[in-house]
Write a structure and sequence with these properties.
The structure holds 2 protein chains of 2 kinds. In chain A, 76% of the residues lie in helices and 0% in strands. By secondary structure, chain A is mainly α. In chain A, helix 1 crosses helix 5 and helix 5 packs across helix 6. The relative contact order of chain A is 0.04. In chain B, strand 12 and strand 13 form a beta hairpin. Chain B is mostly beta strands. In chain B, strands 2, 3, 4, 5, 9 and 10 form a 6-stranded mixed β-sheet that branches. In chain B, strands 1-30-29-28 form a 4-stranded antiparallel β-sheet, with no helix packed on it. The chains are: A mainly alpha, B mainly beta. The interface between A and B is medium-sized, with 32 and 34 residues.
Amino acid sequence: MDGDINATAPGTTPPDSDPARKRRVHGMLKLYYGLNEEGKTVDQAESMDPCDINGPHFDPEVYLNKLRRECSLGELMDQETCMVKQIRSLDSDMQTLVYENYNKFISATDTIRKMKNDFKKMEDEMDCLSTNMASITDFSARISGTLQDQHAQITKLSGVHTLLRKLQFLFELPARLNKCLELQAYAQAVSSHRRARCVLQQYSHMPSFRGIQDDCHAIMDKLAQELRQKFRDGGSSAKDLSECVELLLQLDEPAEELCDKFLSHAQSRLEADLLGLEAETDILEFIDRGCNEFVSSLCLVIASYQELFVNRPQEGELASKNIPQMAIGKLHAFVDALATRYFSLVERRIQEEKSVGDNSLLVRALDRFHRRLQAVAKLLPGSAVPSQGTEIVVRAARERIKQYLAALQSFYLNSLTDVRQALAAPRLATGKDAPASLPELLSTLSASILNQIKSVLASVHLFTAKDITFSNKPYFKGEFCSHGVRESLVVNFIMFVCQSSRQFCESAGDRGGSTPPALLLLLSRLCLDYETSTITYILTLTDEQFLVQHHSPVTAVTALCGEAREAAQKLLNHYVKVQGLIISQMLRKSVETRDWVNTIEPRNVRAVMKRVVEDTTSIDVQVGLLYEEGVRKAHSSDSSKRTFSVYSSSRQQTRYAPSYTPSAPMDTNLLSNIHKLFSERVEIFSPVEFNKVSVLTGIIKISLKTFLECVRLRTFGRYGLQQIQVDCHYLQMYLWRFVSDENLVHFLLDEIVGSTAHRCLDPAPMEQSVIEVICERG
Amino acid sequence: MYQLYFVLQARALTSQTAESDAIRFLVGTQSLKFDNQIHIIDFDDENNIISKSVLQHQAGEIWHISASPADKAVLTTCYNKTSESRVVTCGAVWRMPPEWESGSHESPDDPHNSHNPQNLELLCHLDNSSHGNASCVLWEPMGDGKHVISLADNHALLWDLTESSTQATISSSATLEGKGQLKFTAGKWSPHHNCTQLATANDTAIRGWDLRTMSQIYCIENAHGQLVRDLDFNPNKQYYLASCGDDCKVKFWDVRNINEPVKTLEEHSHWVWSVRFNHSHDQLVLTGSSDSRVILSNMVSISSEPFGHLVDDDDLSDGEDNHQDEKTKEPLQDSIISTYEEHEDSVYAVEWSSADPWLFASLSYDGRLVINRVPRALKYHILL
């Protein structure tokens, strides 16, 4: 039946090549032999169709019936042929299989038989081997038993040998140490001794060992002595020295003492360096030498010291003594002491550096000084030395700023002296070489001061240059710029300028005007210029150059400007006062020294009046050089020709009306007073404005008021009055043009003539036309 | 503030020194054309009435006037006498007629009543024609009215007045020697040191004189930048002296240290012509100037009462005592109390009343006399 299944299933596919077919073949074989466990499931899956030729429930009868019922003859015929063909192929397949398997069974049976024979032989050989092994064991045990004794002896002998060698080493030790000593091979001696030391110590109760130990001690003492000597001599190189120290340490020399010795030794050398420094004169060389000799040897000392005492790996009992801490402590004290001395030297030297010419030298020196100290900082992290060094630099910078301020101040004063001389010169040597005019003097003065400030700023700026090591310290970034340079230097200088200018006002006022008025005028203009532009410029320049960040409150520009303006105002006021005084004095002398009662009829304007006008004109020119014109009230078209007359003024009429109308004195006096109520009060020494007209007005006011007061103290005759009339008319002709309000001149001159008339014994005034003629002639 | 006008211009003002009850000022006029007068100004403090009496001073225009400290009726003047085109300044001692008070009393509102003013009675001339023009006459302070000093050009003359002041004899004199024409411009007889010292001003210098030997004891050269116009002694501090001058300044000096003034005031805007310490409270200083202003200053820091008025502890109960302490601890500062601007012309003279320490008068050239009081607040501040 299986054959049938196989025959129907394949169809077109070739039977051998298909793995699926092969598996099925296997599966069927398994099925056939009942090996398949999965058989049941297969069974269940198979159809229960009795017509299925491959199914387990195949019923040939049903199948045949079905075929006969369903198929035609031809088909039956074909079916039959196909069936026969399939049965045949199945038969042949079965035959092949059986044959193959049979051969395999035969060869397997042969192999098993052969193996049985071989095993038997092997069993015999194994038995033989085991007996042999037993006898060998037996023998071996017997041999080791015999050799036991000899072995123990040998071990003992070898132990004795070692001991003897050690003993020999010990006995030879003194000799060897001596030899080492002779050869100065200290290291070897020390290491030898170290090896023997414990043993000797341990067996020191035995006399022979004790002898050795004593010898060794003696030798080692000597050695230590020599080492110490060498250490003390100090001529040896650093390497030698360090070796020395190392050996001494190993010899249980107290580390503290060694440190001290080492340091004291170094100290003597460093002090020699310091002594050498004192002789140096040039600051740069001084610092160079200080750096190269003192600081570098100090660094060397620190380095080697640390190498010796601090950084050395500690072994054995040395470790327990905490040497590094002690050593570091000593080192710090040592460095601090020396550095203090060095710093005091440096500071003294820096203080000697007074010349302010070239700052770069000092800055370079300080930079070098500071830079070299950084090495110390690296070597000795906790040390205060670098910060102290920085402080010295800071102090030096501060000192420098002070010096620069002093220099600026003296420069300013010198410039002023120059200006004074220049102002005095034209008078001494007129016309020789063109005397510098006021504006020129002003511009040179102001420019030279500005240049000086700039150059000082440039010098000071070196302190903050990028390549200078200390420039990035907080002091130089902040306080130095804002407080030091801006406040102490620039602001102080400006204040100084203002204050010294003011002093001119104060001292000169009482002691008879030693300051030339032109200087006052010039300084006033200078201060005014400072107020308007220069201060702002200088401070902006400073702020820009020094990138001033205002941590602390600084003087505001406006405050300084206010100061300058005040100074300018004061100077100008004083100028007015001084010039007014000069003219006043002329007028006063002229009034006081003349006998006005017995004077002759006026023919001319008095010379002093011409002088007054001349002086006023020259003052006008002088002020005009430095100050703007200023505003004045509109003039009447014929100011110079104004009929100036005692009589034309109704006020004057009433002023001395009592002489003519004694009947009603009270009324006229009242009239005069009422008139005064409406005229503005004249402030004589009042502050002036910064322009020419205001200045001139101030001077003329002072002069005329003096004239008035002097006139009131005198008594006049007829011609005295007339002379004053002439003089006043003359002044009127020329002075109106200088003042801001000509009415002021009119008013004061009216007062003068009025007062004169009042003080006149015989008040017979001169004809106006005559006055005019006299004045025009003069 | 009370004002009074004179017909004539005036420079000379003094309080009636010997009068301690009535508030009375004497003003001398300056006129070249009319007879000059001495006006006696009485101020009735209670009723606020000013009354004026006039005495004729026919000798000439008055430049300086000074009242005797001993006799109310006696005064001296310096006056200009014009004769034959010569002007000479003389000094004289006068007596007011006893009936002036009743006789020629007039109301200020009615000036035309003064038709027949009485004449001053001449006691004696301080005849110093050989010594030059007299600039001022000084009475011995607090004296018996027997000694005066006159300053004439460069001489200081000490006169003894005898026989009821009708005889004047020069007892001693001092002369200022030096280059040029030296002339005393002002002077003051010191009330301290038993009245043995005199201070004078010439040009810019202030000099001190010992009257016993008539020799110079100190000299402040260049005390002022310009002419020194007036001097006054601090009535309570014997070495303190005030001066004023053409440099617009008022300076206070300690004559023991003449190199520097103790204090300088610079408040006036023109020459300062007159300076006066208050007689009782020397922190009050009065100055008059040709800028037409009178300034009253409170110079506490250099006064004899630098910590305010000293009060005896007994006078105060405890509570008041504490209050007082607080008050005195207030920082006292020199200050300008007031600036009086009533005058229209230069003020040449200021004077405290001798009767009422809180009252003062100022006189300007246009003949206006102004009487003012110390501000009430300050008065109480000083008193309490």
